[in-house]
Amino acid sequence: MDKRWIYILIILILGVTLLFFIVESSTTLGSAETYVHKFTITIPPSFNIDESGKEYAVLINRNSGEVIDIRDLGKGDLIESEMYNRTLLLRENVNVTSIKTVTYDLNGTKLPTIAYNTTKNTINQISYYKEYNHTFVITAKNFQDRDYMDINLEYVLDTLKPDLKQKQD
Looking at per-residue confidence, does 29 or 33 come out higher? Predict the structure, then answer.
């Protein structure tokens, strides 16, 4: 066997190995995606699409009942007015026991957040995120573990990308 064939085999083995590591570390290859307006989101592990429409997607973990609701509120910075309106609605709800408005730091991403407790004693929060000149609201409900909720919210925010197949604003 010629030395050229040995070099070709080494390059092929390295190429296949590198492709394996690229696919293994990717958040989108082999994962399900959903659409929110003109954006794509990769669904976190153990979550399924409960329902979706043009402006929203509701993800649910059927084993534990945890819900992540992602909505595109539209172009511009709508955070202040939406937070004010949502806080008023939560105060009127008899099942809400406490409400706290904070700026939540999720690994360097600042999220204005309304954290609230219900009579079910679960972790619930409504976070606002402005990216690509759009305001998104991400509602996390019925979580038992704050760290698990943070991991899934970070996953959703990291995979929120424009759908380049559609005309962008």
Answer: 33
